[in-house]
Amino acid sequence: MEKLLEQFSLGLFFWMLVIFVALIFLLKKFAWKPILDAVNEREEGIKNALLSAENAKKEMQNLKSDNEKLLAEARLERDTMIKEAREIKEKMINDAKTEAQQAGEKMISQAKAAIESEKNAAMAELKAKVSSLSVEIAEKLLKDELSNSEAQTKLVEKMLGDVKLN
Amino acid sequence: MVISKKPLHFIVATLVAFLPLVTVANPTNDSTTVEHTSVTTEAKTEHHEGESKDLKTEIKEFINHHLQDSYDFHLFSYEDDAKVEHHIGFPLPVILWDNGLQLFSSSKFHHGESAAESNGNYYRLFHGKIYKVANADEQVAVDAKHHVTNEKPFDFSITKNVFMMLVVSIIMFLLFTSLAKSYAKNGGIAKGAGRFFEPIILYIRDDIAIPNIGKNYKKYMSYLLTIFFFVWFLNIFGLTPLGVNVTGNIAITAGLALITYLITTFTANKNYWGHIFWMPGVPAPMKLVLAPIELLGTIIKPFSLMIRLYANIVAGHVVLMSIIGLMFIFKNWLGSSLSFVLAFALSLLEILVAALQAYIFTMLSALYFGAANEEHYNDDAHH
């Protein structure tokens, strides 16, 4: 112990403290801080890169599932559209059919009505013609019959005889 | 085993069988020749002892000299044909405070052979220390207890150890600033020598600082990194043929331990002092007993750091140099080559110890900082 104390050099102790403390501060400023910062930054970078890769993977999966969902939706939509189109088509055909039927029926009924009215008109005309003809005929007949006075008296007598009968 | 027990019997039998070949049952020397032989052997051993004692003391002195600090950077010395000793190395500045600053080169001491003169004062080297003497011819006076009676000036010389510390500091500064710069240049990836040191820095951060200190580790990182590399590099330099023994100097380890102690003390939180002066969870009389013990413990901890590093490095150097010295004592093929192999193996072990002691110093410092920063847990933990 005595030897140790004797060996203890105050000058060396002093220089040691000065050099070492100076070294700590110099290295802190020029080496440790930049080194640890760089290492931290790099580690953060790696961590972030891994995280973003993980995120990208997740995103990809999301996208994929989204795509599938979209595809399924599209398929469904297509199916419904086809179905709707088919329904529309059928409906249109049906509609057209009924319309055509209706129109045909209407036309037929109109034609029937027109025919009827024409027929009626023709009948009325015929009747009128017939009546005027018959009047004319009767007139002519009468004219012929009543061209001499004897025939006229005969007719009057006959008519009178009819009235008597009444 | 198939041949169980048999080998032992076999070996014993062989040994017995070969015994006559190496031992002689009859005394070889009869009464007439005994005197002669004993005289010669005595003379021989005396001569041998005298020589080896010389060599032994020389080796011992050499080891002692190596362990000590010195005022010049001495690499090696040799004797030329004319028996004149030449010292190869370079002098270092001597700085003394003795009624004003005294600054001169250590070459003035002529390796302790003469007194150095500065501003009319004379100084002399004695056992690796500088003492003031009255004039150029006066020797250092020693009293009966081998204590030097001469005045000792305040010595702030740039000694070999200070020089080595400066060299290591410069190496560390250049090495780690270049590492720091290489990150910016290479996009966050270390290049060159830094590639080797970066994992060590990360190891200190991830396996020493963070587990021991916790979330406040950042403010201690500079100290832990500096102390680890400082101690490690100095330990490694101590193993080189430059023969510097910086970390095996008590003043150096005391300085390092003192800084650890100061940092622990000044960054300690309330919880730490609470545990020292008023230990929670024990009865009041025990608290009074524990307080001085705990307070003493704060000093013992860095003290153990100081002694551990010093003792390990000194022991390593002494053992290694003793084994190397054995080569010259044996002076035969078997012994010398054996001690060479031993020295080689021990050198490898010392390289491990160099890193291990740096690691232990850093680890324990971190542990003490961690204790000073421990957050208050629930008191149940202490029961």
Automatic annotation (TrEMBL), chain A:
Topology in membrane: Single-pass membrane protein
InterPro entries given in the database record: ATP_synth_B-like_membr_sf (IPR028987), ATP_synth_b/b'su_bac/chlpt (IPR002146), ATP_synth_F0_bsu_bac (IPR005864), ATP_synthase_B_chain (IPR050059)
Compartment(s): Cell membrane; Endomembrane system
UniProt xrefs under CDD domains: ATP-synt_Fo_b
Cited function: F(1)F(0) ATP synthase produces ATP from ADP in the presence of a proton or sodium gradient. F-type ATPases consist of two structural domains, F(1) containing the extramembraneous catalytic core and F(0) containing the membrane proton channel, linked together by a central stalk and a peripheral stalk. During catalysis, ATP synthesis in the catalytic domain of F(1) is coupled via a rotary mechanism of the central stalk subunits to proton translocation.
Known partners and oligomeric status: F-type ATPases have 2 components, F(1) - the catalytic core - and F(0) - the membrane proton channel. F(1) has five subunits: alpha(3), beta(3), gamma(1), delta(1), epsilon(1). F(0) has four main subunits: a(1), b(2) and c(10-14). The alpha and beta chains form an alternating ring which encloses part of the gamma chain. F(1) is attached to F(0) by a central stalk formed by the gamma and epsilon chains, while a peripheral stalk is formed by the delta and b chains.
Name the UniProt record assigns to this protein: ATP synthase subunit b
Coiled-coil residue windows: 46-106
Family: Belongs to the ATPase B chain family.
Residues that span the membrane, as ranges: 12-32
Keywords noted in UniProt: ATP synthesis, Cell membrane, CF(0), Coiled coil, Hydrogen ion transport, Ion transport, Membrane, Transmembrane, Transmembrane helix, Transport
Species, as recorded: Flavobacterium macrobrachii
Keyword Cell membrane in record: yes
UniProtKB/TrEMBL annotation, chain B:
Record membrane topology: Multi-pass membrane protein
PANTHER family: ATP SYNTHASE SUBUNIT A
Organism, as annotated: Flavobacterium macrobrachii
Its job: Key component of the proton channel; it plays a direct role in the translocation of protons across the membrane.
Chief location category: membrane
Protein name (Swiss-Prot/TrEMBL): ATP synthase subunit a
Signal peptide: 1-25
Pfam families listed in its UniProt record: ATP-synt_A (PF00119)
Entry's family note: Belongs to the ATPase A chain family.
NCBIfam families: ATP_synt_6_or_A
Membrane spanning stretches: 162-180, 223-244, 250-269, 309-330, 336-361
Keywords of this entry: ATP synthesis, Cell membrane, CF(0), Hydrogen ion transport, Ion transport, Membrane, Signal, Transmembrane, Transmembrane helix, Transport
Biased composition (Basic and acidic residues): 43-53
Keyword Cell membrane carried by entry: yes
Chain intervals with Low complexity compositional bias: 31-42
Intracellular or extracellular location(s): Cell membrane; Membrane
Keyword hit for rRNA-binding: no
Spans annotated as Disordered: 30-53
